[in-house]
Specification:
This protein is an alpha/beta fold and 463 residues long. Helices cover 43% and strands 17% of the residues. The strands form 2 sheets. Strands 3-4-5-6-2-1-7 form a 7-stranded mixed sheet. The protein starts with 12 loop residues before the first strand and ends in a 6-residue tail after the last helix.
């Protein structure tokens, strides 16, 4: 990938891959040049042959030993030789009984035999550095780990299979053909090379730009799969905002009392409503107050409201509408998608829903206390933020990738405009080479250490 590996990348690394909770099976992973030797020192196959003598990906039963040669566990072991392994290096896995104590001792045995502790995402990072994964596939591994919905998981799986990479590489190949032809004619004028004519490439560049534009257009929806829709729950005090938060989460996250002004700060949690991931923020009741602490809570509520993409405006159906409700409506309606949540439907009604007026993406009658009407709210959210029924990796979810596609597309559109204006070919090719540079950053053909550090630091240890 055009990068020099630091010396630590020559080490053999090990990590527990299955977390620190009790389970039936626990896996310890190993990768690096000393993998075979380390396995031979710590694992004794039942058939008497050393582990290094067994075939690739063959499950072998045997005894796992501690540094003193004492039995730790009876387990299974597998060896995958590079470059055909996940990381591109020799890798091994010990499938032990899932006691965290056993796994910790197994890891200590590997360290004593010459391995070191793997860092977050170091296995996948090695797969990238060794050319086993491009950067879009590597990032899809992280997305798959953190997927919050079935749709997000399927989309990440599709990207891991190369859905984004293939579309980007197709565009990159078109640009590469144009630039290669131009430089061949320029650098080898005496060779019998077909003359370079920009107009012959216009349709191909236009088609490639269209593909990238279609990919970029998916990002608005795709970022919701990854980060969730920023959602503020607002309303005057004591309308049931915290009760709604608790009902949506399914547990008592926020304190609920009958006294107005209980919520003094924003409370944020993630949940999935229908198929739409939400980043819910419960806010302090919107009202004028002399209480300094409550006033700061109202200011934070207004700040959360300013950042929100979806507003759940909560109203108490059992009490007449008043200025506090109208103030919440004015604040919530400023360019936001607003769903009106008419709460306390289990109590006698003091007003009719039509009194709220128009401008809502939906009006839902609920009882947060009883947990009724939430299905109607779910349907309203899904209608306001529609996601496809299926995703095979064609939805762009990654902000870094979207930014790179956007830069590439901007350069390609500039090149097309220059073609139409009759600009010299070298200026057009310069724009196309800029687009290639942006796409190279996207896939990892050309990427800085700081970018890879940010990407892999969010991975768990052992992946």
């Amino acid at each position: 990938m055009g990068m020099v590996d630091p010396p630590s990348w020559k080490d053999t690394i090990a990590a527990v891959a299955t977390g620190g909770v009790l389970s039936a099976i626990g896996i310890v992973r190993l990768s690096g040049p000393e993998t075979r030797g380390i396995l031979d020192r710590v694992f004794r196959p039942a058939d008497g042959r050393p582990m290094s003598a067994h075939g690739d990906r063959q499950l072998v039963y045997g005894r796992l030993l501690d540094p003193a040669g004492e039995l730790l566990d009876l387990c299974l072991c597998t060896l995958s030789r590079g470059p055909g392994s996940y990381t591109g290096e020799d890798t091994g896995e010990l499938q032990c009984h899932g006691s965290p104590v056993v796994l910790g001792l197994a890891l200590e045995s590997l360290f004593a035999a010459g391995a070191r502790q793997a860092g977050p995402g170091e296995f996948t990072r090695r797969a990238f550095l060794n050319g086993r994964l491009d950067l879009t596939r590597a990032e899809a591994v992280g997305d798959l780990l953190y997927a919050r919905t079935p749709l997000a998981a399927r989309n990440a799986a599709g990207q891991l299979a190369g859905a984004v990479f293939r579309r980007v590489e197709a565009a990159y190949a078109v640009l590469g053909d144009v630039c290669a032809h131009f430089h061949a004619v320029l650098d080898y004028p005496d060779e019998e090379i077909e003359p370079f004519r920009l107009r012959e490439y216009r349709d191909a560049v236009t088609g490639a730009a269209g593909e990238l534009r279609a990919l970029l257009d998916t990002f608005r929806r795709g970022r919701y799969l990854d980060a969730g829709v920023k959602t503020a729950i607002v309303g005057k005090p004591n309308v049931g905002k915290s009760s709604l938060l608790n009902a949506l989460l399914g547990y008592e996250r926020a304190i609920v009392t009958s006294r107005p002004g209980t919520t003094r700060d924003t409370v944020s949690e993630g949940c999935v409503l229908g198929r739409v991931p939400l980043r819910l923020t419960d806010t302090a009741g919107l009202r004028a107050t002399e209480d300094e602490v409550e006033r700061q809570g109202v200011e934070r509520a207004e700040a959360a409201l300013a950042e929100a993409e979806l507003v759940l405006a909560v109203f108490d159906r059992s009490r007449p509408l008043e200025e506090g409700d109208r103030r919440a409506l004015r604040l919530a309606g400023a360019g936001k998608t607003v769903i009106g949540v008419i709460n306390k439907s289990d109590l006698p009604a003091a007003w009719a829903p039509e009194e709220l007026g128009a401008g809502f993406a939906g009006l839902c009658l609920v009882s947060a206390r009883e947990g009724t009407g939430l299905e109607e709210l779910e349907r309203a959210v899904e209608a306001a933020f529609p996601l496809p029924d299926r995703a095979a990796g064609e939805i762009l979810t990654n902000a870094r990738q979207a930014e790179a596609v956007g830069r590439a597309l901007e350069s390609m559109e500039s090149a097309l405009e220059a073609m139409d204006a009759g600009v010299m070919a070298d200026a057009v090719v310069t724009e196309l080479e800029g687009a290639m540079g942006a796409l190279a950053e996207l896939t990892g053909r050309k990427v800085g250490e700081d970018v890879t550090e940010r990407i892999f630091s969010r991975f768990c240890v052992g992946k």
